């Protein structure tokens, strides 16, 4: 079998160029599962050698047999085949003129016993509030996790997130300023351990831990900001009680809005929008929280983002905008902005079903509870094609809630159609293509 390495070799023999040469990889160098050149060959109890990543994926899927022989495995031990690996490395060096790069010598995977030992040491150092020892241990965990995806899965499976979260809470309770370095390092490690289990959520959801993460949002360095905002996003997405606790922390709303305004990086922007959405939308959210967001100018910021943004940002921004339209001040701010109705109508059936639902919901709130500007909003919506879009929503299919709201909104729009130019009968097939 021929693998996909090709290299145009140029040799000046009698003024002629050497033709393309296809490189054939020896069969015994290829993994029987992926058929790719093996980087870390390991042998099973069946005597067959596979690439470690491929066979681990096979076994983790619940298979108990050797893929090549279909023989039931006596055990799942994976013995490194050092001889074969050295042969592959020598072959790579020999064929480097063909563009083949030498595979690096793989590191020995970390064992569950090693992980348990280091986590036990983390617990002990956190109890003693020994930040220097704890920092050293956390850096070792990060080093292991950086070596392979297999190591990361093993670290997470052995409960590292809960242990690190408990250590984070201990150091945050002691002193954020004094323990800042180890706290930042723990957050950095936790950022590849999502989703958090319940025990981790409890430790990171304490007032001390939340205040510590919010304080990191004020840092000048990007890394602590990003690690903190991503961890907070994960927490508020899991537990409404944490949302309530976070909303009580002074200054958090202003920080989140500033991130939206400055758009430091896409990760921070998306995470901030998610947190804002949960702060506005959770059942116990007070009008005071929404009013604070409105006063910071968030309504206009969201509309500016919606004009030109990708799908994930657009959904989150529309969700937050719909939440702000749930209060009187938010609706008034939205109605005073010329972008509101055109942007909301444009996003219907343009982004996703969820974005469509948020857009219709926001329009309905502006039209149904808009006060004296209600009529103006309805007329403007008709002028930018809202009625046709809503007809399409009912025709092409969206969520039941979106259809229900679209029906109500159409009933509100219908009386105002008589005052406008008559709308011709719609050919739905052509209309659907136009949107």
Description:
By secondary structure, this protein is mainly α. The chain has a three-stranded antiparallel β-sheet with strand order 4-3-5. A hairpin with a 5-residue loop joins strand 3 and strand 4.
Topology, pairings included?
Blueprint: E1 2-7, E2 21-24, E3 41-43, E4 49-51, H1 52-60, E5 79-80, H2 82-94, H3 112-127, H4 131-147, H5 149-157, H6 160-174, H7 180-190, H8 198-204, H9 207-216, H10 222-238, H11 240-247, H12 252-262, H13 266-281, H14 287-295, H15 298-307, H16 311-324, H17 328-335, H18 340-347, H19 353-368, H20 374-383, H21 386-396, H22 400-417, H23 428-434
Antiparallel strand pairs: 1-2, 3-4, 3-5
Helix pairs in contact: 3-4, 3-6, 4-5, 4-7, 6-7, 6-8, 6-9, 7-10, 9-10, 10-11, 10-13, 12-13, 13-16, 15-16, 16-19, 18-19, 19-20, 19-22, 20-22, 21-22
Labels describing this entry:
435 residues, two-stranded antiparallel sheet, disordered N terminus, 5 strands, 3-stranded antiparallel sheet, 62% helix, mainly alpha, disordered C terminus, 23 helices
